[in-house]
Write a structure and sequence with these properties.
mainly alpha; 281 residues
Length: 281
């Protein structure tokens, strides 16, 4: 029960980070916002880990894989922050929920996992759900919509890499290194789009980092009490907080087609997780 509470708390916290990113996107570049997300995550996470989890901060056994993991999550964040600067948070998150389907599709090639016909069918159904949300030919198929889908693709790869690291590196170390990789890469590139934030904007950016830090720490703590595969379906709870915040702050509410696509994608994702739990390909 403790694991579920911690995990659900994380998915309630993280949409606040997205809300701040969308709010600031009308004044700052989405890339500068991405930089701040990483900079302030490391800024808040490093002291926390140093004082409470110093023994866990051993050097990685797979530094190249850690860097690749950081790159994939960094790319996913850029795509997602860009997408929510244009389209609603609910629609962007719904499309990003293809991540578990992507993970399932590529796991046979990178993790040597066997994926049976029923799980491949679930992947196909989830893809159809994303088409329901996009409705190509009926609505404008813009770059932000594509970016939301690419977010899910990058995150699916990120999950596969995380699985490979799970048996060797401490999760807290992985969290810290992921933040450091993103902060370093973004720091090299952000001067191109840099705009001096006001004190008010700096405050929001710092708060965004706190939500990111708190959310990921809650996720890590939840994994102490239950396996990731058992907690994974609770990640879909994020859409509830996302819809509430999007409607309250931006008057964005998903239409019936977005809801239908969301139900299809979530149903296929949960089916895949259930198949993984019983280990029947």
């Amino acid at each position: 029960m403790k694991a579920i509470i911690l995990n659900l708390s994380a998915w309630m916290v993280l949409p606040f980070m997205d809300t701040i990113a969308k709010y600031l996107s009308s004044e700052l570049s989405f890339f500068q916002i991405t930089w701040a997300r990483y900079f302030f995550t490391v800024f808040w996470t490093l002291p926390f880990m140093f004082f409470f989890f110093r023994k866990n901060l051993r050097w990685s056994e797979n530094p190249k894989l850690q860097i690749l993991r950081g790159l994939t999550l960094f790319s996913a964040n850029i795509c997602f922050f860009y997408s929510i600067s244009v389209i609603s948070m609910a629609k962007a998150l719904t499309l990003a929920f293809v991540a578990p389907l992507v993970t399932t599709a590529i796991s046979p090639f990178f993790l040597n996992e066997k994926v049976g016909l029923r799980r491949w069918f679930a992947v196909l159904v989830g893809f159809i759900g994303s088409l329901v949300v996009i409705r190509p030919g009926f609505l404008e198929f813009n770059l932000a919509t594509i970016a939301a889908l690419v977010t899910g693709c990058f995150y699916g790869i990120y999950v596969v890499i995380t699985r490979k690291l799970h048996s060797t590196d401490n999760p807290l170390l992985t969290l810290l290194l992921t933040g450091v990789v993103g902060a370093i890469i973004a720091s090299f590139l952000v001067p191109v789009v840099w705009v001096n934030p006001t004190l008010y904007q700096w405050s929001w950016l710092a708060l965004m980092g706190i939500f990111a830090c708190l959310g990921h720490i809650l996720l890590i703590l939840s994994l102490r009490y239950a396996d990731a595969s058992k907690l994974a379906p609770f990640g879909y709870f994020e859409i509830i907080t996302n819809i509430i915040l999007g409607y309250y702050f931006f008057s964005d509410f998903p239409d019936k087609w977005t809801f239908l696509g969301l139900i299809i994608i979530i149903s296929s994702g949960i089916y895949i997780f259930r198949r993984e739990l019983v280990n029947q390909p």
